[in-house]
Amino acid sequence: MNKIIYLICSLLVMITFGCQSNKSEQETIKTSKTSENEELLNGTVSLEYAADSYQFKNGFPVTVRATISRHNMDDLEDMAAFLLEDIGLPSMTNNEASPIGSGCTYSDEVALDHGEILAVGKRLKKLQEKYPGRISAQAGPLVKLRMYKEMEDAKATEKLTGRWKMGYLSSCGGVFSKLGVLHDGSIVPCSALHALTMGNILTDDLLELWHNSSVIRDVRDRYVVPLSQIEECKNCEWVKYCNGGCPGIVQQMQNTVMAPSWRSCYKNFLKFNNLRSIYDAYPQEETKTWQIK
Ligand code: SF4
Known about the structure:
With 293 residues, this protein is α/β, with parallel strands linked by helices. Helix content is 37%, strand content 10%. The site of iron/sulfur cluster (SF4) has 12 residues, from helix 12.
């Protein structure tokens, strides 16, 4: 319970950069220098304003997450320099604009394609080398490329990763350890699943919902669904190793959580990038030391 409360509290100081893709309680800041369509992104706060805000001035702990989209993907290096050098934040994290919420409406204009995922992931890897231990990710290009590499490793060695239940819709373990509370009090299994309301923090018993809500239990049930039972996946060479990707995207696009997300599909990624494997995307010496901090 304390863990849940901590996560709820930590959301209140989370700042996302770029595309506000859901209605969770976060502040969004414009970072793109090149975007001609800033209105596509909900950001209305300038970098200067953010740097001058009470959080930074008073040393209040601030979590910064850069949501990478087609409109700010050219500014990664400047963004990192501003946050880590000019402001002096100890670290930053990042993810990608996804077809969730307003990101769904403007998906074609903001969401990265498989080629951009690869290109951005390589540049983020270089930034990780420049700023050791200071750039992390829980989703987005870095996480996808790491996941693909683990799938390659597992296929080559038949040693399965312990990070997910390979071969099942198991990408998201979040619903076993946390849930989300949105700005209006809505309780949801995850901020990426904001359409699946379980109740409201003002009127409902959080612990009761955590244990007994059919909404969150349905998402947990993904763990027992093998990808081999899904028509599009059953003949895929990666079916024993895949995890099906983020349920939030599938829920938004197909109104179900019981399906894989094409945005995380390694088969599509390889087809798009015309690669034999993820190893071809990295020089061997980089692959050996490649890890997310
Ligand atoms: S088709 Fe895509 S989503 Fe399905 S198992 Fe293969 S890589 Fe995974």
